């Protein structure tokens, strides 16, 4: 696959990226370090709200820190701080200055520095969540940055989203179909989304979530608990 020229907004210079299926970095080594989970997905799909819910659900039982990504601001980190989901020293904002998938896949240095700095300053951690800036269905994290990836989509885009695929949908270790409480309002058929997600993802798990109804994101938190326990 050849890189395609594209842009993300009217003010952005068109640019190219390597094949999203090719990871340019060496996978993370094992050893005594935190589990690193990347959370990606389109703008507005509920990534930051999910991170906040996971901090509330897990923050008292495991040693947890968060890295957020925004292009020009610290908006997502500020949201977490305002809501008091973790002590301020456990939240680190990265201003990428570039499109989101560059910072999580192609040039991971800023995120890697943030994760390693948190681990060094806070002592042993069990889990670091790395939230990507909002992106499209091709967004994937480098295995040189994270161990597992969660990809978040929501029903407001219609029930066609899982069927459209893209590496984010098809290869993420966990797909979260969010805002299910909105399905009747937008005419999205959750059974169609479930069928198409299974067809695209085969054995990889998918969970349906409404943070309006489950403020601790129970199925996602339980999935993470299992991963953390497996490393002990």
Give a written overview of the molecule.
One of its GO terms (biological process) is urea catabolic process. Keywords: Chaperone, Cytoplasm, GTP-binding, Nickel insertion, Nucleotide-binding. Pfam families: cobW. Facilitates the functional incorporation of the urease nickel metallocenter. This process requires GTP hydrolysis, probably effectuated by UreG. It is found in: Cytoplasm. The radius of gyration is 17 Å and the shape is globular. Strand 2, helix 2 and strand 3 form a beta-alpha-beta unit. With 232 residues, the protein is an alpha/beta fold. Helix content is 34%, strand content 16%. It has a single domain, classed as P-loop containing nucleotide triphosphate hydrolases (Rossmann fold). The protein is built from 9 helices and 7 strands. A 7-stranded parallel sheet has the order 3-2-4-1-5-6-7, with helices on both faces. The N terminus is likely disordered. The longest helix is centred in the middle third of the chain and has 14 residues.
Question: What structural keywords apply?
Answer:
Rossmann fold, 34% helix, 232 residues, alpha/beta
Number of helices: 9
CATH hierarchy class name = Alpha Beta
Radius of gyration: 17 Å
Order of helices and strands: EHEHEHHEEHHEHHEH
User: Biggest sheet, strands in spatial order?
Assistant: 3-2-4-1-5-6-7
Query: How many domains is the backbone divided into?
Result: 1
Shape: globular
In CATH, the architecture is 3-Layer(aba) Sandwich
End-to-end Cα distance, whole Å, is 40 Å
Topology, number of strands: 7
Subcellular location: Cytoplasm
Function: Facilitates the functional incorporation of the urease nickel metallocenter. This process requires GTP hydrolysis, probably effectuated by UreG.
Main location: cytoplasm
GO molecular function, one term: GTP binding
């Amino acid at each position: 696959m050849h890189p395609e020229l594209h842009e993300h907004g009217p003010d952005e210079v068109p640019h190219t990226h390597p094949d999203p299926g090719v990871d340019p970095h060496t996978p993370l080594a094992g050893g005594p370090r935190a589990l690193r989970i990347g959370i990606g997905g389109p703008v507005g799909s509920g990534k930051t709200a999910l991170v906040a819910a996971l901090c509330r659900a897990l923050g008292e039982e495991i040693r947890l820190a968060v890295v957020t990504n925004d292009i020009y601001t610290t908006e997502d980190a500020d949201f977490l701080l305002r809501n008091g989901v973790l002590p301020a020293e456990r939240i680190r904002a990265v201003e990428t200055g570039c499109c989101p998938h560059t910072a999580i896949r192609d040039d991971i240095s800023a995120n890697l520095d943030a994760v390693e700095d948190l681990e060094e300053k806070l002592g042993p951690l069990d889990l670091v969540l790395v939230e990507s800036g909002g992106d499209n269905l091709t967004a994937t994290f480098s295995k040189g940055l994270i161990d597992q990836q969660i990809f978040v989509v929501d029903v407001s885009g219609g029930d066609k989203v899982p069927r459209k695929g893209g590496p984010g949908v098809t290869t993420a270790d966990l797909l979260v179909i969010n805002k299910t409480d909105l399905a009747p309002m937008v005419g999205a058929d959750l059974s169609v989304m479930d069928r198409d997600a299974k067809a695209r993802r085969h054995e990889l798990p998918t969970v349906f979530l409404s943070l309006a109804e489950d403020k601790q994101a129970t199925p996602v938190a339980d999935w993470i608990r299992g991963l953390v326990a497996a490393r002990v």
